[in-house]
Write a structure and sequence with these properties.
seven-stranded mixed sheet; 9 strands; Aminopeptidase; two-stranded antiparallel ribbon
């Protein structure tokens, strides 16, 4: 069994490295070094310094980061929503993908939501056309809710769509506290 993944909360000082990591993993040629990319669906940025800085400082938001050997290689954003939690921006450096790090970051995010917010479920949105990514989340216990949300066309902060039919699929997973937490 692998040791628990070491994560910490992102700070404002991490924001520039987070922006670079997220944009490199989701968009452009650098993202094609990994198994999952949005480069064929969207151009432009995935996020920017203002958005990441806001996520880091906003109440009810955290970004967990994995920083082995002083280099930020993975992150996940969590947002408290009543008794639930929203998970987004799960990112692994493209050259470190397929190593199990994404799964471990996903588990770290779920654990954090249970331990710190007593979250009962996790929700997320995934671009509908990212069938391989949706299948990956389904293998990790997430199910399609049947809900869809519109893509924010016209807002370049979220990228430049390469097709007119983008939308987000809502996925959900119940979170179960460990035996230790139930006692």
């Amino acid at each position: 069994m692998m040791n628990a993944l070491t994560t910490r909360l992102a700070t404002a000082e991490d924001a520039p490295a987070l922006v670079a990591l997220v944009n490199s993993a989701f968009r452009g040629d650098s993202s094609k070094a990994g198994w999952t990319t949005e480069a064929d669906l969207l151009d432009g940025q995935r996020t920017d310094l203002e958005a990441v800085t806001e996520m880091i400082s906003a109440p009810g938001h955290v970004i967990l980061v994995h920083v082995p050997d002083h280099d930020l290689v993975a992150c996940v954003h969590l947002k408290k929503t009543d008794e639930d939690c929203y998970l987004g921006m799960l990112t692994v450096l493209p050259t470190a993908q397929s190593s199990g790090l994404g799964r471990r970051m996903l588990e770290a995010g779920e654990r954090w939501a249970i331990d710190h917010w007593a979250s009962r479920s996790m929700q997320m949105t995934v671009v509908v056309q990212r069938v391989e990514l949706i299948a990956w989340y389904e293998r990790h216990g997430y199910t399609r809710t049947g809900q869809r949300k519109p893509f924010p066309y016209g807002d370049e902060r979220f990228g430049l769509p390469r097709r007119p039919d983008l939308a987000f699929e809502v996925l959900s997973k119940p979170l179960v506290a460990s035996e230790r937490d139930r006692r």
